[in-house]
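PROTEIN DATA CARD
Card holder: ParB family chromosome partitioning protein
Chain length: 297
Origin: Marinoscillum furvescens DSM 4134
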Amino acid sequence: MAEKKWKKKTGLGRGLGALLEDSEEKEQISGSGATIKGAINEIPVASIEVNPFQPRTDFNEQALEELAESIRVQGIIQPITVRALSENEFQLISGERRLQASKRAGLEMVPAYIRTADDQQMLEMALIENIQRENLNAIEIALSYQRLLSECDLKQEQLGDRVGKNRTTVNNYLRLLKLPPDIQIALRDGDLSMGHARAIINIENVDQQLDIFKKIIKEGLSVRKVEQLVRELVQGKKETAKPKPQVNPEITKLQDKLTSHFGTKIQIKADTKNKGEIKIPFVNAEELDRILELLNV
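Structure generated from the sequence above:
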């Protein structure tokens, strides 16, 4: 099958496509039966190792069987991508589901792009391909973003370029990882939407976050209703914030006078009944002796 036809059918996102272009081997190997790096080759399924950096190992069994049946009938529409470990050994970069389904379909040979990539590029490619899957939940995306930042040493701006998202979108996903585990699990399992979670995260107090989460589950609250509850909660917190205590000018004057006398910052605390305390700080034994001398102790 012609290379041009295969390339039209690739569904790579901008970030993964750029990575693959960066890692492509420019020199092609000619000759009968030889694999050509950077082109599409038919390679033995048995010669392909799984990707050790694959971030997702849980695949829907029914969907995998449906894909295997499709491959039995039509073959593989989109080639997998591998890197060459030796002349006859390869390691998967992307296309884990297609490879697993091909094995179930009984294929001995599969079409593949052969690239060169180091371990970090392998991890980055696997993570980006994982992010570009349509059925990922928000927590899976957030965890992949976090791994790209920490393990691939990317900045948020670089990450946005890699996955084709702006920095705000990336940051909104990363903030989800600050939510309590119960809320993250509900988001992962589809019991809570991204909109609900984004509203909850605007509350700083974890107990209040969990209270609203339980209310959402129990009453089936809409995202708009949750946003309203959060606004009311935040606004109420501002209104009920304790006012700063009034400073007695006589106390302030005395505090300044004592500070000047002792040569160190004196603190005086007193309530409305004139009960309180005076604090005289010191940093070493010499300063303590100096203060005691001034006190005639």
